[in-house]
Amino acid sequence: MKIRRRTLELASASVVLAFALAFSAAAATKPPAATSAPSGDATTVLLGDWHGTLDTGESAAKFRLVLHLGKNPDGTLNGSLDSLDEKVNGIPVDKPTFADGTLGLNLPKIGVHCEATLAPNRVELKGTWYKGEASFPVEFKKGAAPAEDKRPGS
């Protein structure tokens, strides 16, 4: 039990450090889910801001995120990510993908890959955030205001 807790603490610290320093890291080890999708109804619903939460498993280690998705002139997706709690904005998403209802995000600057499935209501994305060997649940909602930070000292 102590080993698992220590592993979670180290993984959480790794996520915090990556956001805080915004340093260049090796690309995420997990490959993207698919190639970039052309424009159409499937990708149009993704355009805009998505407010989310990354849950690292520690009670105080839930990070508020904002995913910004747009469309390139050729119809492919582009994007960036903000970590509100770490006060880091504009982390580039390298060639976001969308296929079979799954959004794939590569953030090589922080060594992260994320896969999230679009819910039938088309305003929720739920998936997994991969950082090295660790994985964490992540959820996004379109158009929802970010949750208040209720951690002590915030």
Describe this structure in words.
By secondary structure, this protein is an alpha+beta fold. The chain has one domain: Quinohemoprotein amine dehydrogenase alpha subunit, domain 2 (Lipocalin), CATH 2.40.128.120. 16% of the residues lie in helices and 42% in strands. It contains two helices and nine strands. It has a nine-stranded antiparallel β-sheet with strand order 4-3-2-1-9-8-7-6-5. The radius of gyration is 15 Å and the shape is globular. The two termini are 30 Å apart. The relative contact order is 0.22. Mean pLDDT is 76; it is low at 1-39.
Please tally the helical runs, counting DSSP H or I stretches of 4 or more residues. 2
Strands, count: 9
CATH class: Mainly Beta
What is the chain-wise order of helices and strands?
A: HHEEEEEEEEE
CATH architecture descriptor name: Beta Barrel
In which order are the strands of the major sheet placed?
4-3-2-1-9-8-7-6-5
* Count of discrete domains: 1
Largest sheet: 9 strands, antiparallel
Distance from N terminus to C terminus (CA atoms, Å) equals 30 Å
CATH fold annotation = Lipocalin
Global mean pLDDT? 76
- What form results from the Cα inertia axes? globular
Work out the helicity level. 10-25%
What structural class do helix, strand and pairing data support?
alpha+beta
Rg measurement, Å: 15 Å
CATH superfamily: Quinohemoprotein amine dehydrogenase alpha subunit, domain 2
Strand content: 35-45%
- Sequence stretches where pLDDT stays below 50 over 5 or more residues: 1-39
Secondary structure topology:
Layout (H helix, E strand, L loop, with lengths): L1 H20 L19 H4 L3 E8 L6 E10 L5 E7 L4 E6 L3 E3 L2 E6 L4 E7 L5 E8 L2 E9 L12
